[in-house]
């Protein structure tokens, strides 16, 4: 049963121009997308750069103005109340970004970064606030020493964990994760993704997981929409998207995933080496009109050979 629906969401940015700076056109960044979110599940939003994924996430949380469409949360239309600072919706729906560093105030210590959402949304005593901060530290597996540190003192993976701790501070129902691991090394990516999954299992959080990478999404998502130029070209369960993609664009994204099975990877590597070797060899050959092969060393040799053939013909 879904707890939140996004219906026919559109975000169009006006393009201004001309002498009077009037609206001459629009960027149709999001052009009519519909989504259903279920408790404890992960909804993947995948597409190439510029397809409208981030704008969708930001529009849902209230960081972008919606042109038309609706967001219904637990039966209430919240389309216009998303920007109210203290609304239940804003407490329940949180967002984490690719670059957690720039989403944290560099002049604030971890203590204040974690305390901020608690003060905004929980209305608790200072003792309760401190208790919650300690709980958050336990969730991310960090000691109290980190509380007096600043964001720049942490590695990328640690910062992303802190970003997640901040997002879960007020027991959200859903986290919108916009490319949460794409700035991290591969090994750290896996740690952060597993951490997100653990939190989901423990607290029943739903994710809207935004990524350009179908390989990463495969590990995380139950349901996936493929976005292209502001629209969904395909939506379905994870298994269906991976085993039976319907749209050519989905196929293209799938073919970009490096294979993770070691044997297949090895076979692919050998095949690639064979193709590359054959290609290199071809580059050093010149075929005349009758299919006779001449060895060539450089590209200019190719021209010379071709020219001499022409000269011969002209003679
Ligand atoms: N404030 C804005 N004004 C005008 N156009 C914008 C604005 N923000 C985004 N766009 C355009 O909207 C389209 C969708 O951008 P968006 O950032 O949502 O894509 P994306 O799929 O998240 O890509 P990326 O992964 O590169 O962020 C792009 O063409 C982008 O240039």
Automatic annotation (TrEMBL):
Keywords: ATP-binding, Nucleotide-binding, Transport
GO molecular function, one term: ATP binding
Highest taxon above the source species: Bacteria
Keyword check for Nucleotide-binding: yes
Alphabetical list of InterPro entries matching this protein: AAA+_ATPase (IPR003593), ABC_transp_ATP-bind (IPR050319), ABC_transporter-like_ATP-bd (IPR003439), ABC_transporter-like_CS (IPR017871), Oligopep_ABC_C (IPR013563), P-loop_NTPase (IPR027417)
A Pfam family annotated for this UniProt entry: oligo_HPY
Keyword Cell inner membrane in record: no
Record-given protein name: ATP-binding cassette domain-containing protein
The organism of origin for this protein: Solibacillus palustris
Origin organism lineage: Bacteria, Bacillati, Bacillota, Bacilli, Bacillales
